[in-house]
Amino acid sequence: MKRIGVLTSGGDSPGMNAAIRAVVRKAIFHDLEVYGIYSGFAGLINGDIEKLDIGSVGDIIQRGGTKLYTARCEEFKTLEGQEKGIEQLKKFGIEGLVVIGGDGSFRGAQKLVEHGYPTIGVPGTIDNDIPGTDFTIGFDTALNTIIDAIDKIRDTATSHERTYVIEVMGRNAGDLALWSGLANGAETIMVPEVKDDMKDIVSRLKRGTDRGKKHSIIIVAEGVGSGVEIGKEIQDKTDLETRVTILGHIQRGGSPTAQDRVLASRLGAKAVEVLLAGDAGKMVGIENNQLVVHDIDDALSRKHSLDEKMYNLSKELSI
Ligand code: F6P
Hints:
α2 (40-46) packs across α3 and α6 (175-184) packs parallel to α11. The chain contains 11 helices and 11 strands. The N and C termini lie far apart (58 Å). The longest helix is centred in the middle third of the chain and has 22 residues, at 139-160. The chain has 2 domains: 3-138 and 256-301, 3-Layer(aba) Sandwich (Rossmann fold), CATH 3.40.50; 140-252, Rossmann fold (3-Layer(aba) Sandwich), CATH 3.40.50. The protein is elongated, with a radius of gyration of 21 Å. It is an alpha/beta fold. 43% of the residues lie in helices and 18% in strands. 6-O-phosphono-beta-D-fructofuranose is lined by residues 11, 102, 125-127, 169-171, 222, 252.
């Protein structure tokens, strides 16, 4: 293998730049040429591709977002789109590809593998919802952003003696809600993996008020439903003055934490090693702090699960 490509796809996540840097530098270290593909699979279809050198990935390890831009590409879900992409890869003489992104991006990578094209997936999403890795690139940074925001909201919640519903991202996964809720001592954490009974939530809030509690924080993962609706229901059923904050895309930006930079560097470099070893159709991940390699097919066929013990702990600590 002489020439590889790298792209980022789907929702961006802090640390993607560190992963791009690792892919480029590790490849060049092993005398490979590296081509950057801009705007994910859309750029692949359009041939928006250029050679990257060592300097082109300088000064990006600390930056959020992705230097290669990203997109969600409907066209690549079609056979025609995939064939156009493969044509471009052939035209540029790119023999293997590293795809950095979430499960949608992994599905795109899987299509390339089905067409016989060596592709490796690097998990990059704030949602932390990819089976086969304990952590995805960007999760830790998003978590710290959420924690910082909730700390600030708690100040005003305390001053005004209010109940706050805070909606966080995560698509169908509750990891961001659970981890941030545990880290912030939230009174209630609502995740899509567990069906909550509003009666329980209301009686918990009432028990708290009876004990003299003046404010409460309720974290709602977006996969559960609308934070605004949940806030209204809580106010109606408890008579507690309730406010709702939807944190939104602030969770996807910002300088990556040390944890994410290191994870991205390790996973990006590992992806190049896997390509060099002649493997295709794999994803790299981290389990028990060890780098691991799994079949993309296998990862995509499994369902991400929430850490049940951690969920139970959050309940025990927020009595
Ligand atoms: O997958 C990352 C993510 O931020 C999800 O948490 C969220 O549901 C989605 O992307 C939002 O996507 P978009 O930026 O396209 O609105």
